[in-house]
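Repro case for the chain-ordering regression, as requested:
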Amino acid sequence: MTYQFDFAALLPYWPEFVHGLWLTLQLSAMATVLGFIVGTLCAIGRADGPPAVKWAVAAYVEVIRNTPLLVQIFLVYFGIATLGFRIGANTAAVAALVVNVGAYTCEIVRAGLESVHKAQLEAADCLGLSRVQTYWHVVLRPAVERVYPALTSQYVLLMLASSITSQISAEELTAVANRVQSDTFRSFETYIVVGLLYLLLSFVVRIAFWLVGLGVFVRRRKLGTAL
Amino acid sequence: MSAVANPTRAAREDTPRSPQAGAPVVRLHDVHKSFGALKVLDGVSLDVGPGEVAAIIGQSGSGKSTALRCINALETIQQGTIHVCGHAIHDPQLDRRALRRDVGIVFQSYNLFPHLTAEQNIMLAPTCVKGMTKAQARELAREVLSHVGLAEKAEHYPEQLSGGQQQRVAIARSLAMRPKLMLFDEVTSALDPQLTGEVLKVMENLAREGMTMILVTHEMAFARKVASKVVYMHRGRVWETGTGAMLDDPQTPELRAFIGNGL
Amino acid sequence: MQSFGLAHVEFLAWAALWTVGLSAIAFVGGGLLGFAVALLRVSANPAARLAAIVYIQIVQGTPLLILLFLIYFGVAVIGFTGVPAILAAGAGLTIYASGFLAEIWRGCIQSVPKTQWEAAECLALTRWQRMTRVILPQALRIATPPTVGFLVQIVKNTSLASVVGFVELAQAGKLINNSIFEPFTIFVTVAVFYFALCFPLSTWSRSLERTLNVSRR
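-- result from build under test --
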């Protein structure tokens, strides 16, 4: 019961923590951007593609959403190796996170697409816009704007879940923590510090998304009203 | 500002239809209420005696619904005093639950509990608040339901009832608490004309039985026929008061314009 | 070297039972704790509300993996040694689930229209009676689909319990892989087990949601 906390022992490792923080941010940013693209394309395919595409996307989303990220990471990391390709842990980590978050993004964006009124599509069609133009100019922006809060939450969860990639020794904050605690034997203190760093990161990510939203959703910024 | 500097001056000396024997059931004195910068009540004074039926009329935004909500302590006031059935509403120490045992309120949007049947909606408060047994409460529920002509709908859920029926159940739910005062907040505004009639009928019967009532309403014909006191509110003030006959002979240009629009 | 066979599938099936057991512990524990936090979150007392907000923010802003490490090393720090892995894992997942369920349920409670509170208040019901007789029965209906949906998250996240030494489905897969190294076959099989547990729950959650939307119209 008389445990002496010793956070001072961790002080020499601060550059490592900062580095880990930076790696986690990079990893999540990459997975977020790629996952958003994959997920949005899938959502469009699901809504408007030929039957085979619709079916394939539905299967992809169901499989990913009903299996753990950890198992997905193992499958990507070890599975690709058995296929004969050699990829590093970091590449596997990004790939697995993209595959994972792409499925969730697809579901969220799909809800957004469904919220766009049919009359909008008809109007665009009557103006002579092509399907691609219609999606790009008329559908996607309001759809994403409506589900932006859900996407933000999903990508904060993704950032936190990136800690799981430490299980295949990808380089990020949790992996750094594992190393530091085995060096210092101050395990409890190490994970308290890292927990706080993740908490900080989750606020940073939220603020970043808020700023991006301000930049992208001009109408909302000017009028302050929801679509 | 209108030509009438002090609007309460337009109040008439007509004696109300029902005798005003006892002390007032409701007394508002110089009540002020703002939502932020928006002044909603600007010195409202009003007395309602036992057995009286007071109808508050006026444009939307005139403060009439807010006045009603203040009487039941659903809104807090910034200045003035309100006494209701012996409760000092303006007092921060007000015992709200004791107040609500004496005052029933019916809302424009019915606000029945969707997960309970008509009967269960009515039984809830008597069992929870008055400690009645289930059997007593059920008997009471049947009684008040037949009072509003809906005895056969006891087992129905709100969504199975028409708007008019839901509103009558809401009235029955309030009656089951045996209130000394009933408040009605635009209770027919959400209803089709043909459903309005059945609700007004119930209210008219209540009035005839001697219930003290205050109603905010757009039904001019009803106000003229049933109310012993008609209160015209304008810009957060009591602009003109009188009997139903006041509506045939308005004293202020505002009330004249209001009635002109309404008819 | 032995290859992947029926014996391994059987081993995985037993491990799947542990996954179910751990999920049940986390759901019951997290549900009780989360309900209490949700009530605090909507209480009239500002201090209680703030405490609930801070708790939810911390739990939702920390990776479950870190939470599990903290419990694992934390119990040693306060003087307990040899705590069974299932207790450590159960405690970690309980805290995790409580933070998310509290927020889900807060949303459901607050989605009951304010006029329902008002109507209940005007019938002289006490705050507790308003909550238990009027608000919660309605919130419960709204809460069922997302709660079942979150159950899927719990089942999947039990896969992280291996870091505190608990052998469940994912860890069992890792153990088999360490001995025979056929990662693709093994982890596909593990994934199939998880899918078999989670997919019915997902489907159920969706159908509950559809029913709810129809009834609300």
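Ordering looks correct now. Residues 11-223 of chain A form a domain with the MetI-like fold fold (CATH 1.10.3720.10).
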